[in-house]
């Protein structure tokens, strides 16, 4: 199979982002993978036997200065934080809405063939829950964006896995509980199952256009 696609990842150091990066590096359909990151990636975080990876440290406060990197086939956005880690609703919205929305705009401007990002199960712009409301508002903003080819969101439930340097005790307890309840979470409840980050990464790749 020929190497025909190029990819860009934002948020490659996160729980899903790390899995996505490795899957793209292992995927024979991709010839190059560019990562826009805040800090240099540690080499022990990935295997790159085909020398596909180009990590680029950027200032996320000035994304337009790096718009040339969006000239790829597929853009993947794994950016996200928590309200606790962000410190305020304004700071949370900046990461989970503004950064992702700007990434979508840059993908459109550079005519990327596909843009996939991580939303959340239950995302709804009318939700009373701040987190879900922001996720829903972002979905509306991106999916209604004209001339953005093949935009798609994945809506995972609680993620199973350890995040480096990020204490999320409640999330871990919830993930463990939902894992135990998985056998009875069927039908409408199936979408609320806890999921592994590698599953989310595979779904993101599946949603990209390869024709």
Automatic annotation (TrEMBL):
<feature type="domain" description="NAD(P)-binding">
    <location>
        <begin position="11"/>
        <end position="160"/>
    </location>
</feature>
<dbReference type="InterPro" id="IPR036291">
    <property type="entry name" value="NAD(P)-bd_dom_sf"/>
</dbReference>
<protein>
    <submittedName>
        <fullName>NAD(P)H-binding</fullName>
    </submittedName>
</protein>
<dbReference type="Pfam" id="PF13460">
    <property type="entry name" value="NAD_binding_10"/>
</dbReference>
<dbReference type="InterPro" id="IPR016040">
    <property type="entry name" value="NAD(P)-bd_dom"/>
</dbReference>
